[in-house]
Write a structure and sequence with these properties.
Layout (H helix, E strand, L loop, with lengths): L6 E5 L7 E5 L1 H23 L3 H26 L5
Antiparallel strand pairs: 1-2
Length: 81
Amino acid sequence: METKKLIRRESSPVHAKVQIATLTDAGEALLDRAYQEGVILERALTDAFTPAEHAALCELLERATTILIQQTRQATAPPAT
């Protein structure tokens, strides 16, 4: 991101080994565009379903997300002693 000039790094005034990364104007602009694209996609998906279908889809996605998070935690957890 730094080589693409989306962030800049500065040394911390408090700790010599800490680098503070902040978005550049180009980084902020890219983040804003990505957010807007997300909003457009969300609206398109919402419009593609009836309210009942949309609610069912959201419930299924929530359940799937919960399973994925649980599986990821199990896969990355340290072995039991």
